[in-house]
Amino acid sequence: MKKNLPYSKFVGIFLLVADFIIIDFSCKLAFYLRFGRNINYEDYYLSFFVIFNLAWIASALFNNIYSLDNLFKFKNLLTNLFYAVVVHILLIFSYIISFKAHDFARLFIFYSYILAIDSIIFFRIIFILFLKYFKQSGLTERRVVIIGAGYAGNELYHYFIKDKNMGYKFMGFFDDSPEIPSLLIKGKIRHLKDYCIKENINEIYYALSLTSNDLIKDIADFCDNNFIYFKIAPDFRGLVQKKVNIDFYDNIPIMTFRREPLGFYFNRVIKRSFDIVFSLMVICFIFPFIFPAIALLIKLESKGPIFFKQLRPGKRNKLFECYKFRTMRVNAQTELQATKSDPRITKVGKFLRKTSLDELPQFFNVLFGDMSVVGPRPNLITQLEEYSKIIDKYAVRHFVSPGITGYAQVNGYRGETKHVQLMQKRVEYDVMYMENWSLFLDLKIIFLTVWNMIKGEENAY
Predict the structure, then answer these.
(1) Which end of the chain is more exposed for a tag (fewer CB within 10 A), N or C?
(2) What is the pLDDT of residue 39?
(3) What pLDDT band is residue 54 in, cutting at 50, 70 and 90?
(4) 305 and 347: one domain?
């Protein structure tokens, strides 16, 4: 659930505009520091000013730095800003190389980055302090009450009190048969209306069963007449123990147990088109240069084929031949997961696994339609048979095509799974990816994968 602050609709736009102004001012100040008042260069650098600003907006949106979920968490804010700067630098250098714009002064670019980054961080700190002061003033406070002191009401109560920056002030429960301590109970349901008027309540949440139609209509009418927001938090206990999503087919509410963006045909077309284009670029521009060297090293160290093929379960558990560069000596234990210091792994294979270069041939799997660039990693057949019996929702990850890289992998869950809990975490991240898929998320995972390849990963063996 996202933090629904009363000013959430405006904060993101405000920060975007503020960043645009800060960066524009930083570039102009950097120009002045480097060239003084020499206006002869001003027209030439105008295009750079524009590209610098547009690249920042793209990298900032890509890294979601305007999300309120992380605005009050300084560590998360700095992390997202760092990634945004890295992506921005890559975009700027791509622009310089692509358009051969090598005449831009390096000192000017350095000044631009130093001034822009420092100014953005300083402005964020001031802005966060202002928001906290603004919230503490009470001007943004929303006073809420809950009808129903049961399971759903109690869960909603904990949501309201867990983060003071969300702007909620919980006032109490109203219930004729409460299930929680009476300390939080303000009265029976018949006392609700008088209390709401007396205490200037802003929102009423109904957390009882939906069978009391007359009661719901009566409270809804009361809220309309007294300018109070009325919201329903139905108790799905016994039906499902997780988040649900509700869509409307005309006026008919349809409930699903999870979001499925890739359930829509248009999204699948976008993802498949991206897979084809991306895999073709890798196969045409990277594979021909790397393949000869890798093939030679594999052959020199050990006997056997260059490529390793193995049946893996894919989308809807359909088996396909997964391609990799061979990283082990030829053996009969192909269904045995690799472990740390595994004697089967060659020296070349250890390097290939550490850098994930052994998975380069899987771009052919992507091109053939068996895999995707990003998705749940394809496990062994034996793992499918074992974990599908003991891990809840394990089979859900096979609703989509497996990927060369995935959300679980960039969050540190790769390599050997010594304990069931490690596979459980992978499944959680895989399902999380499926529920939140977007093209931007795929691009972010690809970027983090490349970044992890450069810095190296402890669990890659």
Answers:
(1) N
(2) 59
(3) confident
(4) yes
Residues 204 and 343 in one domain: no
Range of the domain at 302: 265-455
Domain count, the chain: 3
Output the pTM of the full model: 0.64
> Per the domain annotation, does 196 fall within a domain?
yes
Q: What is the pLDDT of residues 293-333, one digit of tens each?
A: 999 999 998 888 999 999 999 998 999 999 999 998 887 66
Same domain, 371 and 403: yes
C-alpha distances in Å from residue 331, one per residue of 99, 187, 296, 328, 410: 51, 73, 20, 8, 30
Residue 253: which H helix or E strand, with range? strand 252-256
Q: Are 174 and 153 in contact (CB under 8 A)?
A: no
pLDDT digits (tens, 9 = 90+) for 373-417: 999 999 888 888 888 888 878 888 999 999 999 999 998 887 666
Instruction: For strands 252-256 and 245-249, give the pairing.
Output: antiparallel
How far apart CA 189 and CA 185 sit, in angstroms, is 10
CA 28-31-34 angle, 5° bins: 155
Mapped onto helix, strand or coil, the DSSP state of residue 264 is: coil
Structure tokens at 194: 């008088």
